[in-house]
Specification:
Blueprint (H helix, E strand, L loop, with lengths): L3 E5 L10 E6 L12 E6 L2 E7 L14 H10 L4 E10 L9 E2 L3 E4 L27 H13 L4 E2 L3 E4 L8 H10 L3 E3 L5 H7 L3 E11 L10 H26 L1
Helix pairs in contact: 2-5
Bound molecules: hypoxanthine.
Hypoxanthine binds next to strand 5, strand 10 and strand 11.
Length: about 250
C-alpha cells in the first residue's frame, strides 16, 4: 500500500517523472480536495501526488481546502506527507533557489478552517505541536539531499502568512524580529491538520524570492518563476531519492 504522498506547491503542479497509474476523485466530509489524487510510481515506488493549488494552479493559498486535502490523504492510508512550499527568504542565508527544511512554524494566518476538532466532539481536544514537523521524515529528507549531493539548509522557522498579497517590508521586519527565516502562505494550517490526524508531515521549502524589503525593488512573478524552475529541479531529485529509502 502506498504510504507516502507529495503535496506539490507553486512551481510543482506535476511530478514529471511520475508514471501515472490513475487519477482518483475523492470527496471528504470537508468538501472537495484541490484536485483528484494522482496515484503513480516514481522509480518503481508507489506515491500519491496532490497539487495544492489545483491541477491548473487556480486556487490561491487562502482558498485551499486544507482540511479536505489532508482528510483524503489520510483516508487513502497515507502515513507520510512531504509538502512542497515556495517561500520568500527573510534571513540573508535564505537566497533564491535555496532548499530549506524548516523545523519550526509561526502561524500568522487567519480565518482558515484550521482544525478537525471543532464539531461532534466527545470532549475538547488539544494536540501537542511543540515540534510541528515530523523529525523522522525531516531526517530522511536531509539524508536524501545529502545522498543526492544537494546543499540544503536543515533548520529554519517558517512564517505562515495569509496572502495572497506579499508582505510589506515592515511586516517582514516584524517576522524577522519574531525569529522567522522564511515566509510562505501555505504552511498552515496544513501542518497542524496532518498532526491532528497523526500523520508524519514535513516540508521542503524552496526560496522563490527575497522577502519584501530584503531584495532590490519589487517582488516580481517573473523572478519567482525563474527561481522556482531552478529550485524545483533539486526538489525532484531529493524526492526521488527519498522515495527509495522510505518505501
Ligand atoms: N511571501 C509569502 N509567500 C511567498 C513569498 C513571500 O515572499 N514567496 C513565495 N511565497
Amino acid at each position: 500500500m502506498t504510504s507516502i504522498a507529495i503535496i506539490g506547491g507553486t512551481g510543482l503542479t506535476k511530478l514529471t517523472d511520475l508514471s501515472i497509474v490513475r487519477r482518483e476523485v475523492h470527496v471528504s466530509r470537508y468538501g472537495e480536495p484541490s484536485a483528484p489524487l494522482i496515484r503513480g510510481t516514481l522509480g518503481g515506488v508507489e506515491v500519491l501526488f496532490l497539487p495544492r493549488h489545483g491541477a491548473g494552479h487556480t486556487i490561491p493559498p487562502h482558498k485551499v481546502n486544507y482540511r479536505a486535502n489532508i482528510s483524503v490523504l489520510h483516508d487513502a492510508g497515507i502515513q507520510k506527507v512531504v509538502a512542497i512550499n515556495a517561500v520568500g527568504g527573510i534571513a540573508n542565508t535564505m537566497k533564491p533557489q535555496t532548499i530549506v527544511i524548516p523545523d519550526q512554524i509561526i502561524d500568522y494566518t487567519w480565518s482558515r478552517s484550521h482544525t478537525f476538532f471543532d464539531e461532534g466532539l466527545e470532549g475538547v481536544t488539544h494536540i501537542d505541536f511543540t515540534e510541528p514537523y515530523c523529525e523522522e521524515l525531516r531526517l530522511e529528507i536531509l539524508k536524501a539531499a545529502a545522498d543526492s549531493n544537494i546543499d540544503i539548509i536543515g533548520s529554519a522557522t517558517y512564517a505562515a502568512t495569509q496572502g495572497p498579497r506579499f508582505e510589506t517590508s515592515a511586516e517582514v521586519d516584524r517576522l524577522e524580529k519574531d525569529g522567522c527565516h522564511i515566509v510562505g502562505m501555505t504552511g498552515m494550517p496544513e501542518a497542524a491538520l496532518a498532526r491532528e490526524l497523526g500523520m508524519c508531515y514535513a516540508s521542503v521549502a524552496v526560496v522563490a524570492n527575497k522577502a519584501a524589503g530584503r531584495g532590490e525593488g519589487e517582488i516580481t512573478l517573473k523572478d519567482i518563476e525563474s527561481n522556482l524552475k531552478g529550485g524545483m529541479g533539486k526538489v525532484k531529485q531529493i524526492i526521488e531519492s527519498l522515495i527509495q529509502s522510505v518505501s
